[in-house]
């Protein structure tokens, strides 16, 4: 039996090149080796304020982005979290074995609470428990996420172990799956921090749905380091290293090859070429994206809901029996 991979993306903000190179592109490579389940985690998104109309369209947008990136709905399960009520049911049950002190320690909660002082709601606090439910319902082996989420996966393991020893051996212990390639695409305006859709300047990132002309502009405006030699050096030339990494991943050429190709040329030339590579990638990506209509996406999500529900229901039944409510 193949191992199971589970991951999710929130339908909020704009997905960018960092999300594509750090997550989606790698998921595509995994889908033939593993049973893959990719969720649109809308109940996580509402822990911050969302406009209902925007949320609805973002849910479809994320599913379309999955497909445009190359995820195959015939092999992978793509579904919307809120359509499988086992997620919130299991989250409630897991709440009863989660200590508030454990949630208080979560760095993402602390960060988000600081940024949203006027809306520190229970959902935001409980976010990691819902995420644990997402993962545990599907007997997940591996969870491909960025390092900012590894604390949540660690908590998931703690809760699974606690449940298994207190009640019955129901849950499989999942592991974080750390990706080797492209895991950390950095901000174009600040290579010390990860590319982020919530960055203060939109020149931090290239959104997957940015117009190619806009993307070109953003690449040309990216900060560079001092010196002029095109050499990959994370410590001395972090901005250049980031551009080389993006170039290498999008054009499928090694960084060494790029260094050789740009030997004796300046940063300006590299940026101009990278701007073209990015613009071309986006044009093709967006062409695929716009080829999916809402009806088609709704069908995919409905098929996903059916497959996901069947797996989730089985786990939830075992959980209910173990705790004595069924
Ligand atoms: N918290 C994750 C993020 O913001 C999204 C997510 C929710 C998730 N549930 C998940 C990721 C389960 C992996 C597995 O990136």
UniProtKB/TrEMBL annotation:
Key words, A-Z: Aminoacyl-tRNA synthetase, ATP-binding, Cytoplasm, Ligase, Nucleotide-binding, Protein biosynthesis
UniProt: ATP binding residues: 10-12, 18-19, 146-148, 185, 194-198
Alphabetized GO MF terms: ATP binding; tryptophan-tRNA ligase activity
Catalysed reaction, written as an equation: tRNA(Trp) + L-tryptophan + ATP = L-tryptophyl-tRNA(Trp) + AMP + diphosphate + H(+)
Gene3D superfamilies: HUPs, Tyrosyl-Transfer RNA Synthetase
Motif ('HIGH' region): 11-19
Residues spanned by motif 'KMSKS' region: 194-198
Binding sites annotated in the UniProt record for L-tryptophan: 134
Main location, first listed in the record: cytoplasm
One Gene Ontology term, aspect cellular component: cytosol
Biological process according to GO: tryptophanyl-tRNA aminoacylation
Localization in the cell: Cytoplasm
Family: Belongs to the class-I aminoacyl-tRNA synthetase family.
Subunit: Homodimer.
HAMAP family for this protein: Trp_tRNA_synth_B
Function: Catalyzes the attachment of tryptophan to tRNA(Trp).
Name this polypeptide is given: Tryptophan--tRNA ligase
Origin organism lineage: Bacteria, Candidatus Falkowiibacteriota
Underlying gene: trpS
């Amino acid at each position: 039996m193949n191992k199971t991979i589970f991951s999710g993306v929130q339908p909020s903000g704009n997905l960018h090149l960092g999300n594509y190179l750090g997550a989606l592109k790698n998921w595509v490579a995994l889908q033939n080796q593993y049973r893959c389940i990719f969720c649109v985690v809308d109940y996580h998104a509402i822990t911050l304020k969302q406009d209902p109309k925007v949320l609805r369209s973002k849910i479809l947008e994320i599913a379309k982005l999955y497909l445009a990136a190359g995820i195959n709905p015939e092999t992978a399960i793509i579904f919307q979290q809120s359509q499988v009520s086992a997620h919130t049911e299991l989250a409630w049950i897991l709440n009863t074995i989660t200590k508030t002190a454990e949630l208080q320690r979560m760095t993402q909660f602390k960060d988000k609470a600081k940024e949203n002082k006027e809306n520190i709601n229970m959902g935001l606090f409980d976010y990691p428990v819902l995420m644990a439910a997402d993962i545990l319902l599907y007997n997940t082996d591996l969870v491909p996420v960025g390092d900012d989420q590894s604390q949540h996966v660690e908590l998931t393991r703690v809760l699974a172990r606690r449940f298994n020893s207190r009640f019955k051996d129901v849950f499989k212990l999942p592991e974080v799956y750390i990706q080797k390639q492209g895991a950390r695409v950095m901000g174009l305006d600040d290579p010390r921090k990860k590319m982020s859709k919530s960055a203060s300047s939109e020149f931090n990132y290239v959104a997957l749905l940015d117009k190619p002309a806009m993307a070109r502009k953003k690449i040309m405006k990216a900060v560079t380091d001092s010196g002029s030699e095109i050499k990959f050096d994370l410590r001395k030339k972090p901005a250049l290293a980031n551009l080389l990494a993006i170039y290498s991943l999008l054009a499928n050429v090694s960084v060494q090859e790029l260094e050789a190709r740009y030997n004796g040329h300046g940063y300006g030339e590299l940026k101009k070429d990278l701007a073209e590579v990015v613009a071309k990638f986006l044009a093709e990506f967006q062409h695929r994206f716009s080829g999916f209509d809402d009806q088609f996406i709704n069908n995919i999500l409905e098929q996903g809901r059916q497959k996901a529900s069947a797996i989730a229901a089985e786990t939830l039944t075992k959980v209910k029996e173990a705790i004595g409510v069924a």
